[in-house]
Design a protein that fits this description.
alpha+beta, elongated, six-stranded antiparallel β-sheet, 8 strands, 3 helices, two-stranded antiparallel ribbon
Amino acid sequence: MAEVTRVPIRPISRGSLVMLFIGIVIGLLIAAAFAWATAPKGVSVDEVRAGTGDNPTAEDVVFVHYTGKLADGTVFDQSQPLPLPVEGILPEGTPLPLQNMVPGFREAALQMQRGGKYTVEIPAEKAYGAEGRINPQTGEGVPPNSDLTFEIELVDFMPMEEVEARFERLQQMMMQQQLQGGEGAAGGEAQDAPAAQ
């Protein structure tokens, strides 16, 4: 029978084990830092004043007062009061259908409640991304890769079907007022004519 030559294995020195352990820890820290730096940033919603009740759904229309700012504080967008001739048809604030909003705004709005005020930070990839949103006539707007900050007050929200029904009712009321106004003007002219004689 052939004899196997045995080669003695040298014992690992204690210093080598410590260096191996340190190398593994450093490798894990570098990998974690890289993952954190390249991970997409999320939307931040800070409550300034608490709201009440339910949250909107992705299919709702929200009525808000808002101011949108770039990272340097430049205001790029602001809500305008809705010039409605008849009060009580729609809530105060600018109506925004959440289906048509940038993903970060929609994500933030889904966390809000009626009457609440919020400060929202939206990373560029959940806003207008690499394209930005520039007005070609003025050159103003949101430059590419811009993070955005919004100050938002959620006045109210409702399903799109209800908003459409209320706008329809508003149109009907306006048409009735125009008809009544037209009849009154015609009647007023007829009454004035005999007095002039």
